[in-house]
Amino acid sequence: MTDKALTVPAVALGTWAWGDSGEAGDGIFGSRLSEPGLREVVEKAQSNGFTLWDTAAVYGMGRSETVLAKALKGYDRGEYQLSTKFTPQAAGDSDDPVGDMLEQSLERMGTDHVDLYWIHNPRGVARWTPLLIPLLRSGKVKHVGVSNHDMQQIALADQILGEAGFRVEAVQNHFSLLYRASERAGILEYCREHDVRFFSYMVLEQGALTGRYGPANPLPEGSNRAEVYNGMLPRLQALTDRMGAIGEDRGAPAADVATAWAIAKGTTPIIGVTKAAYIDGLVRARGIELAEEEITELEALADAANVDTRGWWEPDM
């Protein structure tokens, strides 16, 4: 059995954008990431109790893991948790592709274990899940999660692990005010009932729910997210305005309200952090308690916007 139950902070920190090539101006969001800048992010996060770092072998094809390890240098391994992923599409053809990908991740991150190891998507649940068992037995993996899996696939993975005395302890899916498929499919309820941590990603819908963008101030042209979201911005205005008003009462912008909503739903949001100032928003979000009627109102406005933000990579829930 796993030694102890998975415990996580209120918010997990996403490092997808840390996998940029390192060339100035080549940031996924046009961000210019520097070593000192990311070190500052780490220091501020760690000192505020945000100690779970989420990455993946395929983020920048290993670069995110390497950069993260460098930024965490000097911290005791017990002071932070590492969450990374096995991606089926990137699997090699050896006898043990899962173990091999994990070894490469461990090497890049300079550690002998990961706290949370995910199967990144459900291509071949019956094929890949059994390969996690020896990794759990060896202690190289402390806890297992599944990402972008539907109810049936979560149950199958849990059954396979269960036969060896382990279990699925976490689920990571796209979940936001605009995309509540995991709730409608009963996955949130399943997680509550089975003491499984639900991690929500894309909580801010790549910036569309931060309140910083609107019909008059669209997302920067030429980016993928502009293509996906700019056409929706007029329909999101009522929602983001209301989020802004709810936040104003609490000295917080709309983005923090989106994060607070995800926390209020019993989930652990994964928020991408590339600037130390973003940590202030997480501190605020962690402290916001939304009233039941505020949650209901925000969800009604989100439903009325009637937009579909399911990613091309996501299976239907």
From TrEMBL:
CDD domains to which the protein is assigned, alphabetical: AKR_unchar
> What PANTHER family does the entry give?
AFLATOXIN B1 ALDEHYDE REDUCTASE, PYRIDOXAL REDUCTASE, CHLOROPLASTIC
The protein depicted here goes by the name: Putative oxidoreductase, aryl-alcohol dehydrogenase like protein
Q: Which GO terms describe its molecular function?
A: oxidoreductase activity
Q: Write down any Gene Ontology CC term.
A: cytoplasm
Extract the InterPro entries matched here: AKR, Aldo-Keto_reductase, NAD(P)_OxRdtase_dom_sf, NADP_OxRdtase_dom
Q: Does the keyword Lipid metabolism apply?
A: no
Organism domain of life:
Bacteria
Indicate whether Repressor appears among the record's keywords.
Answer: no
* Gene3D superfamilies xref list: NADP-dependent oxidoreductase domain
- List UniProt keywords, sorted A-Z: Oxidoreductase
Boundaries of every NADP-dependent oxidoreductase domain copy: 11-302
